[in-house]
Amino acid sequence: MDERDLDPDPIVALTAWIDEASRALEQPYAMTLATATPDGRPSARVVLLRSIDPRGLDFFTSRTSRKGVELGTNPRAALVFHWWQLGRQVRVEGPVEELDAAESEAYWRTRPRASQIAAWASQQSEPLQGRDELDDAYDRLEARFEGAEVPLPPFWGGYRVVPERIEFWTHRDNRLHDRIRYERAGSGWRRERLAP
Ligand SMILES: Cc1cc2nc3c(=O)[nH]c(=O)nc-3n(C[C@H](O)[C@H](O)[C@H](O)COP(=O)(O)O)c2cc1C
């Protein structure tokens, strides 16, 4: 990978990589999201990228989930995309903002009805007595919302990771991989090559 192969704006470069991945792969939007408690205990899980633009990278989840609680008290995150077949990895780091109700609602409306009911039924990250508890909750909620739109739950919404660092990695033979890291500098970006 040559610096000239990557757009000077890393959001443009990342969008191009995601577009290429979406043509080559079944599911290019899965990204590992790392959060941490205020005293620095990390946790990580996979979520789906729902949009990317100059403001940042958006995903949706429950605000009362483990990740939601961690972001509520320590609003910073790291993301990792890995596309094995393309030999590419991208790392993103930065502060996290909650999307407002209007933005969360706009995305909520695009979700399949079953996913909407499932979001209501799941107190994400809380222990369950068993599978039945979840299935029963789903059935109750399906009956409750019958014939009506499923409203946006007050405990569910979007988050935006606002990148202050983005690193592009490509596989090269003999472990001599390429790494190009962008960091915010004023209103633009500075980039440098890192040892693999
Ligand atoms: C491919 C994939 C995509 C996922 N996408 C999401 C997502 O967009 N939002 C979400 O809340 N959980 C998603 N999950 C589930 C999370 O990985 C995780 O189990 C859940 O959010 C609870 O995490 P937490 O307890 O750390 O908050 C996804 C899992 C996989 C494997």
Describe the structure.
The chain is of the alpha+beta class and 196 residues long. The chain contains five helices and ten strands, in the order αββββαββαααββββ. It has helices spanning 10-24, 66-73, 101-108, 113-121, 131-144; strands spanning 30-36, 42-48, 51-53, 56-62, 76-83, 88-98, 156-161, 165-170, 178-185, 188-193. Strands 1, 2, 3, 4, 5, 6, 7, 8, 9 and 10 form a ten-stranded antiparallel beta sheet that branches. Helix 4 crosses helix 5 (131-144). The radius of gyration is 19 Å and the shape is elongated. The mean pLDDT is 97. The chain binds flavin mononucleotide. Flavin mononucleotide (FMN) binds at residues 30, 43, 45-48, 59-61, 65-67, 124-125.
Ordered list of secondary-structure elements with their pairings:
Blueprint: H1 10-24, E1 30-36, E2 42-48, E3 51-53, E4 56-62, H2 66-73, E5 76-83, E6 88-98, H3 101-108, H4 113-121, H5 131-144, E7 156-161, E8 165-170, E9 178-185, E10 188-193
Summarize the structure.
By secondary structure, the chain is α+β, with helices and mostly antiparallel strands. It is built from five helices and ten strands; from the N terminus they run H-E-E-E-E-H-E-E-H-H-H-E-E-E-E. Strands 1, 2, 3, 4, 5, 6, 7, 8, 9 and 10 form a ten-stranded antiparallel beta sheet that branches.
